[in-house]
Amino acid sequence: MNNTEKKMQEAAARLLTGGSVDCIIGFENGSLPRTARPCFVRNAKDAERLVWNQWCVANLAAFVPKLFEKPQKPRKDYKTPRVGIVAKGCDGRSIAGLVKEQQVPRASITIIGMPCNGMKTAPKGEKNNVAGELARTCIECVSPAVMHADIAIEGESRKPAKAAYPRVREFEKKSVAERWRIFTEEISRCIRCNACREACPNCYCKVCFADQRKPSWVSPAAQVSDTMAYHLGRMFHQAGRCVECDACVNACPMGIDLRLFTQKLASDARELFGCVPGVTGEDVPPLNAFKQDDSESFMTDPEER
Amino acid sequence: MTKSNATAEPTIVAFLCNWCSYAGADLAGVSRLQYPANVRVIRVPCSGRVDPLYIIKALQEGADGVLVAGCHPGDCHYISGNLVARRKFAMLRSFLEYAGIEPERVQFSWVSASEGGRFASLIEKVVADVKKLKTGKKMAGESRSASLAR
Amino acid sequence: MIAHGGNPYIGAPVRIEKVTVENDEKDLKTFRLVFRETADAAAFNHRCGQFAMLSVPGSGEIPVGIASSPLDKGYLEFTVKRYPTGVVTAALHDLSEGAAIGVRGPLGNGFPMKELEGKNLVIVGGGFAFTTLRATVRYLLNDAIRRRYKNITILYGARTPGELLYKSELAEWQRRGGIATYITVDKGDDSWGGRVGLVPLVLKDIAPSSENAVSIVCGPPVMLKFTMLPLLELGFTPETILTSLERKMSCGIGKCGRCNIGGSYVCKDGPVYSYARIRQLPENCF
Amino acid sequence: MKQAAIDGKNLKKLATAMLKQGRVRGPVRDARTGSVALGDLSPKNELILDYANFTLPPKREFFPQCETIATYDADGFRPEAGSDKQIIFFGIRPCDVRSLGYLDKVFLDANYADPYYRKRRDHALIISLACEKPGHACFCTSVGGGPAVAGAGVDIMAFNPGDSLIFEAVSKKGEDFLKKNRALLRAPTAAEIKKKKQREEHLQNALPELRMDGVTDAIGKNFNSPLWDAIAETCLGCGACTYLCPTCHCFDLYDEKQGTGGRMLRVHDACMFASFTREASGHNPRGRRGERMRQRVMHKFAYAKENFGDIFCVGCGRCVVHCPSNIDIRETVSRAAL
Known about the structure:
The structure holds 4 protein chains of 4 kinds. By secondary structure, chain A is α/β, with parallel strands linked by helices. Helices cover 31% and strands 10% of the residues of chain A. Chain A folds into 2 domains: 3-69 and 81-152, no CATH class; 166-287, no CATH class. Chain A has helices at residues 3-18, 64-67, 89-100, 136-139, 166-173, 176-187, 195-199, 224-236, 247-251, 259-273, and strands at 23-29, 36-41, 83-87, 109-113, 120-121, 133-134, 151-152. Chain B contains 5 helices and 4 strands. Chain B has helices spanning 21-30, 52-60, 81-98, 116-132, 138-143; strands spanning 12-17, 39-44, 65-70, 106-110. Chain B has a 4-stranded parallel beta sheet with strand order 2-1-3-4, with helices on both faces. In chain B, helix 1 links the parallel strand 1 and strand 2 (39-44). Chain C is of the alpha/beta class. Chain C has 2 domains: 4-107, Translation factors (Elongation Factor Tu (Ef-tu), domain 3, Beta Barrel); 120-244, Rossmann fold (3-Layer(aba) Sandwich). Helix content of chain C is 22%, strand content 29%. Chain C is built from 8 helices and 15 strands. Chain C has helices at residues 38-43, 87-94, 131-140, 143-146, 167-175, 199-206, 221-233, 275-280; strands at residues 12-21, 28-35, 51-56, 60-65, 76-81, 100-107, 120-126, 152-158, 180-185, 195-196, 213-218, 241-244, 260-261, 264-265, 272-274. In chain C, helix 6 runs parallel beside helix 7 (221-233). Classes of the chains: A alpha/beta, B alpha/beta, C alpha/beta, D alpha/beta. Chains in contact: A-B, A-C, A-D, B-D, C-D. Chains A and B meet through helix 5, helix 6, helix 8 and helix 10 of A and helix 2, helix 3, strand 4, helix 4 and helix 5 of B.
């Protein structure tokens, strides 16, 4: 057992014993080789189930907003749960975003900040590919350290990468027709299982626009145009909010390159509004705010010919 | 909406804010200003009310282009609706262009209640821009009928 | 089953012949439908308690209990409540007489009318779930049919007098002999001279005999729940209490997977269940 | 002609011959991801024999994710006729073939046979290919199958003992196919048959065995157990498990307006979505995630057994591999059957 993992287990056990949290969301060993999976631990004895290794790729913040949903019928005995979460840099950024958007009361969350050397992903379902590769999101991660940790577990972390978005720049150089072709090709793989949405910590809407039937924004039929509308709409809802954790990418059973598109939003949020969600930026998400001198060079001026 | 794929006579869906741009369009009409008849106007309370989904839905349902127009900065009936909209549309336009939807198809502008002439020339410009594009009905044309049996 | 050319997913064409607004809130309407093809009309033979899928082109389909009697030939009637969130019910309510829609059915098992012959019947209904009971009562009141059954007691309750369905028929049932009809409302108004009280309480009050009797109960889940106890107290066994369940449905023929309660598909194995069977099902049905 | 063999080097010729007999769907390389997927065979897209299984289950070939079942206009509905083209499916794994047998029970029942599914099944010839290298989440032997066991609904079972393929016709249709292509085929050698037998035995014992007898009753008793909520705690509520499951067959019917007419679509739906059972009144009989998890597991392991006599799980392991939270149905079932 590595030392970091031990310290994390001890911290988790302490929190549970001390009664300052009701549960800890962390990782346990998955049922398949080269996997770690989310788990909820409710008593100190079980803290030894928690693991910390290079396969802890999921963003655990996705489970958090649901824990704070109040019961439909008000109950007298309802208490706001107190939740501990084993967090990487990206999980931490997501929590910060959820706190900013008032989905989660900060005081009820205890963040166990983990040192993160980057997580690996292996192709799903292939038996013999043992190696796994460092996830692209980790290679490009600009803030591997957990910024708002309540308990910081010591250990070696990756150095922050420089925000450069090389794939976005490269993609932008392609012709509009070529970009559309690639977008269409990627999206047409989608089977509309909604894994991207459900795995995304930012997709906490009680009823997603894609599930609304009155009006019906997107038909449940998995026709390409509906699927495009779904992804454009869902991804754009992350504009200025996406923490680039790749939860959507990792959840997708079809291997759709959603990162190619979500990164554009991250890149734009940084360039246009100086916002790195969960790291820097205004007190509200950039699209909920404005400045008098925001750029409007994109707008059409009919008198300018 | 026609079913053809040609951009000869494109359909432009225009979301106009109730207080300025819709009045501007009205003024263009009252002043007997000529502008292309390709535009289908949808009146909204404020440019800030225009959800990006409206634009995506319009494209998906077969619009060749979408225009959103609101009050000039400082003139918003709701003080700052247009300024919030400006940020949203800056990112939306960039994002859609990135995904391969030509920027000519999705345009934003300011038109005040007194700018009938500006409205008419705006429509002329948008229609001319969309006519220049090689294909019509971007999202709808792509795949409404294609099914994904894989 | 009557459907388009034998295709079980596509409704046979019908025309809305008549629309009746049933209640003060105007969110309950009865639609009288007439088949476009005479062959369909002749072949559509339903049992009391069965339902059909109504198909509103462009909006979708909903399962609705058949409110007309199997003996009402030449037309079908359905009473539909409009839900603010419902896509199909809203679209259906917006249609006017003459509009073309689709019907596929009859679906489900229905009430075992044959087995009930020779028995006393206690029919208990609440709210707009009274529709298939209305079909049953209309059927029972046919002179040739009536003599096959013994005493018939009807208890029907609604929230307010304005929410009572089929008002003119209710009045007629109360006037005529051969059946005992009790109408109650949860809350009366100035013009209401009848009973006031919740269905389970009124049931206790009128205390129909359970001897050689079967009770058919339809209503909102909460009413069903509170009606079971008084019925048991009156001596009805779980086997002699029949009720009809509702679930969201899409196909109506046991394939689409959403209406099941345990391993039982409400569309195909139901919607009529005895209370004995309901108690065997793993989920709380109401 | 019941049994035949083909040398590996002649496989290309067989592919060419098959293409003349209809559309051929088989294991081909997906250009974008590099993985092997069920796709259209063409001179450019060669058959590949070295693969575990496809990500997407073959149910989609007979019960597509989205299909038009009728169009309508002012004159009424017009059911979709469907294609009359014959399709040869090559390389469907034995587990997936068994799933088609289960779907047949659902869609081709005596009372309400599904005309769309029926037509596609009637126009298909299915050649199953025994697994050489089962995947790491495979558990077909625990649910009554095996890497080389022909399932109901297959026409030809193929084995790959080395440099050749051995075909065994299971149905009349399969026999006809072998007869038609006999020019390319030969009788299998005794050595080949022996090798095939050895492989079969080896594979049948190579996979982990889970105890499944009595599972139906045991799960049934745990219907009201708090276990389901506990298992569903890490469930994200997506539909990856159901959409990738070869036996999940829940669907929705959806009307789409187009001008004055429109179409009726049948689309896949998933019991893991809250919207699946949510009623117009807002009431949801399966409002909790645990209830939906229970429905999914019980449907396969209890209700299907009750209604059709079979457990509707073929042990392909797709849901195990692709669940974003790695909720493993093998673990779920053994926990629920305690």
